[in-house]
Write a structure and sequence with these properties.
Length: 390
């Protein structure tokens, strides 16, 4: 259950439904809102009996928290699941999913890919969040690299850790043997402040002053589109192409026509576009403010890591890559494919199955009185206003 289950979630859920069905486990998907999501541009008409959107024509702002809770609880009562999987308890899906699970003595798995140290909260708020989150039975994280931070707040000896939910359908991005002679670097992002595309343009000015072959493709759209295009002209850039937004299913062909992928973001809780680029066989040049970088990037093996706040760092990494011999670029490409191959849908399914089997041997995790009181008063929210902020 989540506030919305679009874009990347769609293929994950179809895979998991089939994967679990083969093991005599039923999966139901409960999507709360049809409107108000950054991803509600995706038109996907669900005909599956196992997948339902509770408020298909409404956003959370058009509903009261009690309306959301009542309908979510009614659907959960109908399904009567053994395990509820929901987002962080800051969302309606996590808060309400956990509350229903505790009331009905069922297991709850919380998925999250934001590192606690990157989300600043005051002491009281963080203490309350920790109190609630520690009532979960399982914590589904992207990778074991998250353990160091999460284990401090939510000890592994008190809940089941599982990994790999931040994955994609890798096979969609493999379009034959990868060539490395396109003389093109690509970035894919919403054109918003935190994506740091302005800094990429400034770095590309250095590239054009020192290389007369490579071009930069910028795939995506957003509120900064006109400003960034104007800045490109101001800098006098000749080999930068703004390609606009394209359908998700068309992204693989754009990636296949590039030699490398660059992402200079100032913050990414994960960054699934990194998965996509690597599945397409691209070396990746990544900001060290992207969580995926610490799992998927091996510096100097399948790309480069840089600090987006360090002057000249991005332009240097771009030139380092451009100047590499084609044979080295091909080795980087092969390494990307090798690394992303370990993080696919089967890994995601196996991890979930491992947790479900573990739950068969564990008893109900009864919350303390303070925890129960807080859980019963907390509804979560749907605040996406800060998603694009630095």
């Amino acid at each position: 259950m989540h506030n919305d289950l679009r874009v990347y979630w769609r293929r994950r859920l179809f895979f998991l439904h089939t994967f679990l069905k083969k093991r005599h486990i039923d999966l139901f998907a409960v999507e709360l809102f049809g409107k108000g999501s950054p991803y509600d541009f995706e038109s996907f008409n669900k005909s599956q009996t196992w997948w339902e959107c509770l408020f298909p024509e409404q956003s959370n702002t058009e509903l009261t928290k009690h309306q959301i809770k009542d309908k979510a609880f009614a659907r959960l009562n109908e399904i009567d699941p053994d395990v509820v999987i929901g987002g962080s308890i800051v969302f309606y899906s996590g808060a309400l999913g956990l509350r229903w699970a505790k009331r009905n003595k069922k297991k709850f798995i919380m998925f999250d890919d934001a590192k606690p140290s990157w989300v600043k909260r005051n002491f009281v708020v963080q203490t309350i969040k920790n109190l609630i989150t520690n009532q979960a039975d399982g914590l589904w994280l992207p990778s074991v690299e998250y353990d160091e931070e999460y284990n401090t707040l939510y000890p592994k000896n008190k809940m089941q850790y599982l990994y790999g939910y931040d994955c994609i359908d890798n096979n969609l991005f493999k379009l034959g043997d990868k060539r490395m002679d396109h003389h093109k670097i690509i970035t894919v992002s919403r054109l918003v402040p935190k994506k740091n595309v302005k800094a990429l343009l400034e770095a590309w000015k250095f590239v054009e002053d020192n290389d007369n072959v490579y071009s930069l493709d910028i795939l995506g759209d957003g509120p900064l589109a006109d400003e960034l295009k104007a800045y490109k002209n101001q800098l006098g850039l000749k080999r930068v192409n703004f390609l606009g937004a394209v359908a998700n299913d068309d992204i693989p062909k754009f990636l296949s026509c590039a030699d490398a992928f660059v992402c200079p973001s100032l913050y990414e809780s994960w960054g699934l576009v990194v998965n996509e680029a690597m599945a397409a066989g691209l070396p990746v040049l990544l900001s060290d403010k992207i969580n995926a970088a610490f799992t998927l990037l091996k510096d100097w093996e399948n790309g480069y890591l840089f600090d987006p706040y360090e002057e000249g760092a991005l332009q240097q990494k771009l030139m380092d890559f451009i100047r590499l011999p084609v044979a080295v670029k091909k080795r980087m490409s092969a390494k990307s494919l090798e690394l992303i191959g370990r993080m696919d849908f089967n890994y995601m399914g196996d991890e979930l199955l491992r947790a479900l089997n573990h739950f068969k041997t564990t008893s109900f995790k009864k919350p303390s009185l303070p925890a129960r009181l807080v859980i019963d008063q907390w509804y979560g929210r749907y605040n996406t206003k800060e998603w694009d902020r630095v």
